[in-house]
Amino acid sequence: MSGRVIVVGSINIDLVVRGVRLPAPGETVSGGVFERHHGGKGANQAVASVRLGAATTFVGAIGGDRFGEEARAALVDEGVDTAELVTIDAEASGVALILVDETGENVIAVAPGANGALPPQAVDAAFRRLRPGAGDIVLVSREIRPAVVATALRRARAGGARTILNPAPADDLERTVLGEVDLLSPNRRELAAIAGPPDATMEALAGRLLGRELVREAIVVTLGAEGALIVDERGPRRAPAPAVSTVDATGAGDAFSGALAAGLAQGWQVDEAVARAVVAASISTTVSGAREGMPTTDVLEAAIARA
Length: 307
Known about the structure:
By secondary structure, the protein is an alpha/beta fold. It has 9 helices and 13 strands.
C-alpha cells in the first residue's frame, strides 16, 4: 500500500522575463518576454508528486490577496490536498521574480510574504490532524522559517514518516536539524555550503553529513544535466540524466524532489526512486515554466522506456 506525500514549504506566484541573456549587475537588458506562472518550491514539489500518482498534501501559507486565491486554486486543480494551506490575511502572498536566458539558465529573487509568516504552531496543528505514519514521506524545503522546518521534520519522524529535506537555500542551515532527516537532497553548491570547507570531492563532502546525529539514510546530490549522486553506507553511485533539449531549468530541482518523494511513497527503493526523479527533472526542463513541464506517470514511464 502506498503512503502519502506531505510537502511543507513555500507557495508563490512567479513573474518571469525571458531574454537572450541575463543582465550583469547594474545592467538593463531589453527585449524580453513576460510570463506569469504558479511557483514556490514547496508547491512545485507537491505538483510534481501528485502528477506522478502520489496522494499529496501541501502545508504552507498564502496571503489574503488575489495571488493567494489563484495559487490555492492552481493546487486544487492539480489534485493536491490544500486543507492545511492557511491564509494569513495581514500578509501578501509570496512572489518570485525570475529572469531566464536563451540557454535556460536563470536567476531568481523571492519576496516570501506569507511564506515567511507561517508559524510553527500552524504546522504542529496540521501534523496532529494529518497523523503521518509508516509509508508516508514528508518533504520539507527551506523557503519558510527555520523553526517551521524543524517542527515539520520533528513531527514527521515522531509520527513514523520518512523525511526528505531539500535544503535550498542552504547558507544558514542549522545542522542540528539533520538528525531529523532521512534523505538530504542538495545541489552541489548547497552540499558545499553545508558540509564545507569545499576542498574535497562531492563524495567526501556528502560522507561528512552521514552518521550519528546527522543524516540517517542517504545524501542525494542533484547535478543538473549530469544526473544525481547518491551517497550512503553502500558508498557513492551515480544516476545519469537523459539528454534533452533544455528550454527552462526553473523548477527542475523541485520536479526532482517531488518525484523522489512520490517514488519513495510508492515503494521504490532509493536508487530506483532517484533514477526516476532524474528523468522527471530532465523532462521538466523541456517546457517553459516551473511546473508546466513536470511529467505525469504516463509521460515519465514512456521516457524511461525510451531511455
